[in-house]
Q: What sequence folds into this?
């Protein structure tokens, strides 16, 4: 359960007149399910990279549960990310030559936390995302299959934070729905804070806060009231 607080964040790249991301203040409660929307180039991926600790922050604070990740060295940020964040990025970051199962387990093995229980959970997740061949090498997979491997990997350690960039973009309706179910059920079970950049209207409707970016600024922020079951 981790809340996020961003303050005075500005992200610039050399040669650009204005920052690509500029957020004065943003708070996300622990356990929220946030949809991040906005047109192409509005800053969604940049914001996800920043809150995942993938990119260094030079101006501002990005505080997850009291820890300002902008102040961490790269090595400590990497360790913090491995312990706290499940990531599904657009280019998946899978390792060619390894099977689906080995890709799902690789981060846990690198962090030396792989156990027989975790291997069993990896197998179950692969099945849940609808992959029939856990031993298949990822480079022979379709884009949609690779996406599902990346999702299973992100959810393996029931992370406190789940960050996904267009997680249903390569999937048909049925698999998109299954991936949405899985992200939401793992997030609910682990109390994870979920932040998803998406254009998928069905996915957006399943999330309880909608933040809209334009030109690197927040131009919309709506919390949808929970409907009692
Ligand atoms: N390393 C970089 N150097 C220069 N400009 C960059 C860099 N990375 C991102 N940008 C610019 O920052 C802006 C925001 O990019 P970003 O990828 O965050 O947008 P996005 O909303 O995720 O877009 P899309 O929906 O097309 O993926 C864009 O104008 C992009 O060209």
A:
């Amino acid at each position: 359960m981790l809340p996020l607080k961003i303050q005075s964040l500005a992200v610039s790249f050399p040669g650009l007149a204005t920052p690509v991301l500029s957020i004065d203040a943003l708070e996300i409660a622990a356990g929220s399910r946030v949809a991040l929307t906005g047109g192409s180039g509005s800053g969604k991926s940049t914001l996800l990279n920043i809150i995942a600790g993938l990119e260094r922050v030079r101006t501002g604070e990005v505080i997850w549960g009291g820890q300002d990740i902008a102040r961490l060295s790269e090595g400590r940020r990497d360790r913090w990310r491995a312990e706290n964040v499940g990531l599904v990025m657009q280019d998946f970051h899978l390792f060619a030559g390894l099977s689906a199962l080995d890709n799902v387990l690789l981060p846990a093995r690198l962090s030396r936390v792989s156990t027989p229980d975790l291997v069993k959970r990896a197998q179950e997740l692969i099945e849940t995302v609808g992959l029939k061949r856990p031993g298949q090498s990822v480079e022979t997979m379709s884009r949609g299959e690779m996406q599902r491997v990346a999702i299973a990997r992100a959810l393996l350690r029931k992370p406190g934070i789940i960050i996904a960039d267009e997680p249903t973009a390569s999937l048909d309706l049925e698999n998109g729905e299954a991936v949405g179910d899985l992200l939401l059920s793992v997030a609910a079970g682990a109390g994870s804070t979920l932040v998803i950049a998406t254009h998928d209207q069905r996915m957006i409707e399943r999330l309880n806060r909608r933040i809209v970016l334009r030109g690197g600024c927040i131009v919309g922020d709506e919390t949808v009231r929970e409907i009692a079951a």
Observations:
- The mean pLDDT is 91.
- Helices lie at 44-51, 74-84, 100-110, 116-128, 143-155, 173-190, 201-205.
